Amino acid sequence: MNSLPTILPTIQLLLQDLAQDSLRFNDVFEQSFGNGLNQNFAETLRNQWTSGNFSQLPAIEILGSGMNGALGAYASSTNTIYLAQFLVDGSQPKLLTSVLLEEIGHSLDAKVNSKDTLGDEGFLFSALVQGKTLTFEQQAATQSENDAGFITVKGQSIAVERATWTVSTFAELQNALTQSKTNGTSDIINLIANIRLTSQLPLINEDVSLTINGNNFSISGDANNNGINDAGDVNLFFVKSGTVTFNYLTLTGGRAQGTDGRVGTYN
């Protein structure tokens, strides 16, 4: 089932609500794209969104392969947003909404600025439009993230700005690992905060590959949060299948313990 037809009205309503508050609109645009943006273009866009005109938004294309670890991507060369096939199957409407807003943010940056804003401005735009609050550390991680990459469309490699799994909590990391298992593509998870596990993570059972970019944050297995490695703590990761790469990630407080033996009678 293609869930885009039901998600797009939600996206448009969020953008229209943003545009109807000029102060918030300007604040979101300056936080996301910098204060050197093209104010005339931004104001024209605000007026269009206020009246329900979204003709400036890029075309959307769904790809069954070639996304190279991206959930979504925007190519300025084709003025098109590309979405991974599994993302529009209807099972994760909140994630689809966030990814679509992120790629709209990437497309806006290409139009209001003469050069790409440093960091992942699309992720920041998506969070701000949805009213999410990011900590200083999360904003700093977002602004240092490299969102550039390549996807393959009809046999051609295309430069894009892309959305990947971005996590800051145990629940988000758990969901990313669960959902990325069987989507038939390479996956990328980016941390933007330190995460303490509160229970065991799901097995990593990738059908292709997984890259976890720590961005110099940490994952702790100190589930009971007592600072002691004891029976209340959990394993960090268990890789059952697939190629897994960890970059700039500190793993701490994990506990590896075998199962207890069983009392029995031997003849």
Describe the structure.
The protein is built from 7 helices and 10 strands. By secondary structure, it is α/β, with parallel strands linked by helices. The protein has a 5-stranded mixed beta sheet with strand order 1-3-2-5-4, with helices on one face. Strands 6, 7, 8, 9 and 10 form a 5-stranded parallel beta sheet that branches. The model is unreliable at 261-267 (pLDDT under 50).
Question: How would you summarize this macromolecular structure in one to three sentences?
Answer:
The chain is an alpha/beta fold.
List keywords for this structure.
10 strands; globular; alpha/beta; 26% strand; 267 residues; five-stranded mixed β-sheet; 7 helices
List the helices and strands and how they pair.
Blueprint (H helix, E strand, L loop, with lengths): L3 H17 L1 H12 L5 H12 L8 E5 L8 E4 L4 E5 L8 H20 L8 H9 L6 H9 L3 E6 L2 E8 L1 E3 L2 H10 L7 E5 L3 E2 L7 E17 L18 E14 L15
Parallel strand pairs: 1-3, 6-7, 7-9, 8-9, 9-10
Antiparallel strand pairs: 2-3, 2-5, 4-5
Helix pairs in contact: 1-3, 1-4, 2-5, 4-5
Q: How far is the first residue's CA from the last residue's CA? A: 59 Å
What's the main sheet like?
5 strands, mixed
Tell me the radius of gyration: 21 Å
Low-confidence stretches: 261-267
Order of helices and strands: HHHEEEHHHEEEHEEEE
Please state the overall shape, judged from the principal axes of the Cα atoms: globular
Mean model confidence by pLDDT: 89
Strand order of the largest sheet: 1-3-2-5-4
What fraction of the residues are assigned to beta strands by DSSP?
25-35%
By DSSP (H or I, 4+ residues per run), the number of helices equals 7
| Class from helix and strand fractions | alpha/beta
What's the total number of strands?
10
The helical percent reads 25-40%
